[in-house]
Amino acid sequence: MNHLLDLGSRKFWRLVGKRVDLASDHSWLRAPTSRSSTVGDGWLAAEAAHHGGTVDDAAAATAPAAGPAPGLLPAMTVLDGPGFDAARLDRRVRDFYEHTAAWHMEVWSGWSPLFWPAGELVARLFGRRVEQLSLPMRPLDVAHGMDSQVRVIRDGDGEQVGAAWLRTLRPSGRYVFSGCYSARRLPGAARPSVHVAFPLESGNVQVFLRPVVGDGGGLVLESPPGAVRAGRRVRRGPRRRAGLRRARPAPRDLPAVPRPGRGAPYRPRAADLAHLDDAAALQDGARPMIHTFHLAELPAAVTARALLRPPSSTGAPGLDHAECLALMRLGAPAVSLDRLQLRRIAVFAQWCDEDAVDRFLSEDALGRHLAAGWHVRLEYLRRWSRLAALPGLPARTGGWDQDEPVVAVTVARMRLPEVPRFLRWGRPVERQVRDHPGTTLALAAVRPPRTIATFSVWRTVREMEQMVHGRAGDHPDRRHADAMVERRRRDFHHEFATFRFRPLAEHGTWEGRTGIVPLS
Q1: Per its UniProt entry, which superkingdom is the organism in (predicted)?
Q2: Chain centroid offset of residue 434 CA
Q3: How many CB atoms lie within 10 A of CB 243?
Q4: C-alpha closest to that of 241 among 499, 498, 495, 417
Q5: How far apart are CA 476 and CA 470, in angstroms?
Q6: Which of 63, 64, 266, 408 has the most CB atoms at less than 10 Å from its CB?
């Protein structure tokens, strides 16, 4: 069946396409192809042989002893010409293109419901099987992260004539993206363009992007309409985000570069990139970060106001982000007043330091209400997937002991058509967590129409992990593990992330209880 599908698609393009002569008139369209139906990196050796050279695998190393890390282009000056001067680019933009292998990639995925069916169809029929342009369809697909590798293609004289940018999913190693980057001049063009070719069996997909220096040293890559229309201005389509950071000794992320509104071309400026210099402070620990989780009983009007207008950094200096939600009882019937308790609020927040927390609790109107309840201060340890609202969190910040207490927080944005399915699979998990002997507190919260969160305090990391994987005791309980399998089959959410924290200190009481966090 797959053979017939591939054969049929090739026949279609030969029928509707135009014959070209790659040896002479159309040599500018000559690009690598794959000899097999699975692309991956199998095209590299043939491409190097075409140029009479080799693939410089050693150049992919980023260790200082290996010399400068390779880039997608040997130098940005290869794009110089009328209307473009690489010397005007911001140094960080040049560094990325000239030393791409020294940058680490983090990616997270979420699709608009309008585009998801078509994307899923392409991924199932072609992308995953062919291992080319295999876009992640669900946030969990990239939960373990993505590896990025640059392999330089050199000609017989040792000059870089192309660079393969290969991206694979962890831990499976499945190829997501395999592209060949170079500089190439279009017929009649006054200066070179960035040329990207994506090899396919007996063919390829090509994009030509004309470089323009933007305001403040940013780089705009575009392909305006004209006689040769090999591409278009780069725009955001499905909501797939990626962050790139320069490799550093400490395993922390840089803050994300601000992005424009949906549908707008991405034009990074030096002003946008300037705050990346804060990365050194973040990695050296000079910018501390703390999270808090609050529970309080409030008048319904106060809770409703917080749901509609949660605190922000404008009114609460030092606050990075806050999620305000109404509590719901774990395991409650699907249609029940216990599913939306407007007199009981939960707030999950990220702060720059503890002084900001103290200031908020003493000076802010909502903060004073929360101060009368209970809260725990948390040290961030790890995440699975990510939230767009918290872009600067590294995948992991350190280790932990299997016998120490731990706090787990999950935040998700629901796909509304999937709510019935989610309730069918989620309610058994709610009861499993609620009744587990390893939890000292477990609850859920909601902010209509689509945000849900869970919060649980565990006596030990070991007990929590055994529950997650369904491995505890002689009679393992796989309700959580089975729900995760179903979620991987078809996601319930637009966005989903689970966070692990080390509890630092708890304050106040909740439902007459103190000492909710076990002593380590």
Answers
A1: Bacteria
A2: 30
A3: 18
A4: 495
A5: 5
A6: 408
Report the distance separating Cα 139 and Cα 85, nearest Å: 39
Q: How many CB atoms are located within 10 Å of the residue 67 CB? A: 10
**HSE, side-chain direction, 13 A CA sphere, residue 472:** 17
- The token duo for 120 is 């899923």
Rounded to 10 deg, the angle between the 479-489 and 419-435 helix axes is 160
| Alpha-carbon torsion (401, 402, 404, 405), positive or negative | positive
The 10 Å Cβ neighbour count of residue 197 is: 24
Q: Are 389 and 316 in contact (CB under 8 A)?
A: no
Give which of 231, 248, 166, 206 is closest to 22, Cα–Cα.
206
**Residue type, position 460, single letter:** T
| Rounded-to-integer distance, Cα 282 and Cα 287, Å | 5
Q: Are 372 and 295 in contact (CB under 8 A)?
A: no
Q: Is-contact 266 403, C-beta < 8 A?
A: no
The answer to whether 149 touches 57, Cβ cutoff 8 Å, is: no
* Phi, psi dihedrals of residue 419, rounded to the nearest 5°: -60, -50
Preceding amide of 171 cis, omega within 30: yes
- Nearest 5°: the CA angle 444, 447, 453 is 30
pLDDT in tens, the chain (520 residues): 556 776 777 778 778 878 888 888 888 999 999 887 788 888 998 999 999 999 986 555 444 445 678 999 999 999 999 989 999 999 999 999 999 988 877 777 777 788 888 888 888 877 777 778 788 887 777 777 788 889 999 999 999 999 999 988 876 778 888 999 999 998 888 899 999 999 988 888 999 999 999 888 889 998 766 554 433 333 323 333 344 445 433 332 333 333 333 333 333 333 333 333 333 333 333 346 899 999 999 999 999 999 999 999 889 999 999 999 999 876 556 555 666 788 999 999 999 999 999 999 999 999 999 999 999 999 999 988 878 888 878 888 878 889 999 999 999 998 888 888 887 887 788 778 888 889 999 999 999 988 999 999 999 999 988 888 777 666 678 787 787 778 778 888 778 889 999 999 999 999 999 999 987 6
- 366: tokens are 């909502």
Of how many residues is the chain composed?
A: 520
Tally: H helices and E strands in the chain: 13, 17
Q: For residue 131, which phi and psi values (nearest 5 degrees)?
A: 60, 50
Residues 114, 263: Cα–Cα separation, whole Å = 14
Helical (H) or strand (E) element with 510? none
In this structure, what token pair is assigned to residue 31? 């690009």
Centre a 10 Å sphere on the Cβ of residue 163 and count the other Cβ atoms it contains: 25
Kindly report the CA angle at 414 between 408 and 417, in degrees rounded to 5? 145
Cβ within 8 Å of residue 169, ≥6 positions away:
136, 141, 142, 144, 146, 147, 176
